[in-house]
Design goal:
The structure is a single chain. The longest helix has 17 residues. The radius of gyration is 27 Å and the shape is globular. It has 30 helices and 18 strands. The N and C termini lie far apart (55 Å). It is of the alpha/beta class. Helix 8 links the parallel strand 6 and strand 7. Keywords: ATP-binding, Helicase, Hydrolase, Isomerase, Nucleotide-binding. It catalyses: ATP + H2O = ADP + phosphate + H(+); Couples ATP hydrolysis with the unwinding of duplex DNA by translocating in the 3'-5' direction.
């Protein structure tokens, strides 16, 4: 890619000057400032001017990898996720990997928890250490979390790895650096500089958008000691004026955005930055007024590409999106909570294996027998669990009759239900979804139906076992698809069996194994109406306007509606956000999340806050303007 004729941004020129002087750099820019555009300009100019050097660009998600690859490509450019980059460096050193992984699993406080794996000096003899989307430590298979810990330890133990990286890449550029793990930054800024080889690292991102707990957040210590030189990018190319000025009030690092000097920027019109629109809706009392606000906004909420309603958690979305019953099974089952309480108690006090031949009911009875009040409380359901059990006594009776070993090994988590959420149908599905086999099977049925309805027959035939050999088969197929579409109110097991019997989606070994290993969960899922799965499928495939506030980072939409409801989650407090008060870490976390949400809007931003405090309301008037604060 030859960029000789292109005009470089002043921030890009500053970055290139730092690199020419052999200095690591940080390009900081607020939301919508065009950081990715700057990154691509830097890459292009380095490829043009330093024709003997290779560049590694590493980022947080596969979606970001594809975004960068779509803008620039070269044989000397490697674009990958952080985890893939690290594995590409360490994966070929198998002897060292085996030794390091064994060491990390040993001791009273292992860096990688071995679980039930018996640690021995030769435990990985003859096995290749592999990086996959899941973890089986006994087989030497590691996943995302382990790769970072493993890589950090490898660089510490084998310093020549730094030379290997420097020899391979003259430049390493990190996109969305704030989401990068501390250990990765330490490798790049503490360990690599010790190598005798030439090389530099550059970081692109925004500390104000550091909304993931495991990311480094910012590089202030490195900037303060001069190890990294900062370049600030103050322009805003995405948001209208009212939105980015609101966002400026939320920033805590002194960076204030202004209109772009580029009259062709997306947020410009007729040579001026667009004004935009912001609204703050609030209500008092216990009644939820969400639908009233939607009606007042009069947006086209069916436009799922350019309209988003943002909630803090999937739990808040599930009832509105129509799959609240499924979320309750995966995330609010008091019997499963009681089981986990019992398992923790045994692990803290006894050898859990000696209970494996008993039923769960027999284990509970044995633990509760002869206990005093204090100890009995530890092996009894909590108040919340008791409320659930009173409403569902049949579930506790079911659990009591199940083998304890099988029941305690039945992993249930909401990620198995709502993992891999897309923002639109066009998005790529993330590798390594945690979605459970039951949900995958039902979704395969829905995908078969969807492909048929969309007349995507080649894809349909690749996915289904149904075969079309004559005209009559086409008639039967149409009847089967229409029959499934008409079974929305029926228990999903009827749909599964119908699709199996008619060759649309066979019941395979994975579903059979799920029923065998997770009988309690299976029995709960099969009676749920098919409609709930249809609604869940639409949500996860990006066919609804709903999204969590975390999932939209890096995205932009014409219309954004932010619902300020913490859902009982103590990590966030929206009254504290507007009062600019309270626990500092909770306040900072909430400020950053709200900043990310607001800066998604390309035209209109609406916010709804139920029961704000007087101080919070006063701040809303200041930030949004009194005329834009509307009481319902």
């Amino acid at each position: 890619m030859d960029q000789a004729g292109l005009s470089l941004e002043p921030e890009v020129k500053a970055v290139l000057d730092h690199l020419a002087n052999g200095t690591d750099f940080l390009l900081s820019g607020g939301a919508g400032s065009g950081k990715t555009y700057s990154l691509v300009q830097v890459i292009g100019e380095l490829l043009r001017t330093d024709r003997s050097s290779a560049i590694a660009c590493i980022t947080y998600t596969n979606a970001a990898v594809h975004e960068i690859e779509s803008r620039i490509s070269s044989d000397r450019l490697s674009v990958s996720t952080i985890h893939d980059f690290l594995w590409a460096v360490i994966g070929s050193f198998q002897t060292e990997l085996r030794l390091t992984l064994t060491g990390l699993m040993e001791g009273e406080d292992p860096k990688i928890n071995p679980g039930s794996v018996a640690i021995a000096a030769e435990m990985f003899a003859g096995k290749a250490i592999q990086y996959k989307e899941y973890t089986v430590l006994g087989e030497g298979i590691v996943s995302h979390d382990e790769v970072i810990v493993l890589a950090r330890a490898m660089f510490d133990k084998y310093p020549k790895l730094g030379d290997v990286v420097r020899d391979r890449f003259r430049y390493i550029l990190v996109d969305e650096y704030q989401d990068t793990a501390h250990a990765v930054v330490e490798i790049l800024l503490d360990i690599l500089p010790k190598s005798g080889r030439r090389g530099n690292c550059g970081f692109f991102g925004d500390a104000m958008q550091a909304i993931y707990e495991d990311g480094i957040g910012d590089l202030r210590p490195y900037v303060a000691k001069g190890a990294v030189l900062e370049v600030q990018k103050e322009q805003n190319r995405r948001n209208p004026r009212l939105v980015y000025e609101l966002a400026n009030n939320l920033r805590t690092d002194g960076l204030r955005q202004r209109a772009s000097a580029d009259i062709s920027a997306p947020n410009m019109k007729g040579g001026e930055v667009r004004e935009g629109q912001i609204r703050f809706y609030y209500s008092t009392g216990d009644e939820d007024r969400l639908q009233e606000i939607r009606d007042h906004l009069a947006w086209d909420f069916a436009d799922v590409v350019e309209t988003k309603e943002l909630n803090l958690t999937h739990n808040l979305i599930a009832p509105q999106a129509g799959f609240g019953d499924l979320m309750a099974i995966y995330d609010k089952d008091g019997v499963i909570g009681f089981r986990d309480r019992i398992v923790k108690y045994i692990k803290d006090t006894d050898d859990i294996a000696k209970y494996d031949d008993l039923t769960f009911g027999e284990v509970v009875a044995a633990l509760q027998a002869g206990k005093g009040v204090k100890e009995l409380n530890k092996v009894s359901p909590t108040a919340g669990m008791k409320d659930f059990i009173r409403q569902h006594p049949e579930l506790l009776a079911d659990a009591y009759g199940r083998n304890f070993r099988a029941f305690r090994r039945m992993y249930v988590d909401k990620d198995q239900l709502i993992d891999d959420k897309k923002q639109s149908e066009a998005d790529l599905a993330r590798k390594g979804s945690k979605r459970c086999d039951f949900i995958k099977h039902v979704f395969q049925i829905q995908q078969v139906v969807h492909l048929y309805e969309e007349r995507r027959y080649n894809e349909f035939l690749r996915l289904t076992q149904f075969r079309i050999n004559r005209a009559a088969d086409k008639v039967r197929l149409k009847e089967h698809v229409e029959a499934i579409a008409g079974m929305s109110e029926r228990p999903v097991i009827e749909v599964i069996e119908y699709a199996h019997q008619n060759g649309l989606c066979r019941i395979d070994d994975r579903l059979g194994e799920f029923r065998e290993r997770k009988g309690y969960l299976y029995d709960r899922l099969v009676v749920v109406p098919y409609l709930s799965y249809q609604k869940l499928y639409a949500y996860l495939e990006g066919r609804t306007t709903y999204s969590t506030q975390h999932k939209i980072k890096g995205r932009e939409f014409d219309r954004v509606f932010v619902v300020l409801d913490s859902g009982g989650w103590n990590n966030y407090n929206f009254n504290n956000l507007f009062e600019i008060d309270g626990n500092p870490s909770v306040l900072a976390r909430t400020q950053k999340l709200f900043y990310v949400c607001c800066t998604r809007a390309k035209e209109t931003l609406a916010v709804y806050f139920r029961n704000p405090s007087p101080r919070a309301l006063a701040q809303a008037n200041s930030w949004f303007g009194a005329a834009n604060c509307i009481k319902l």
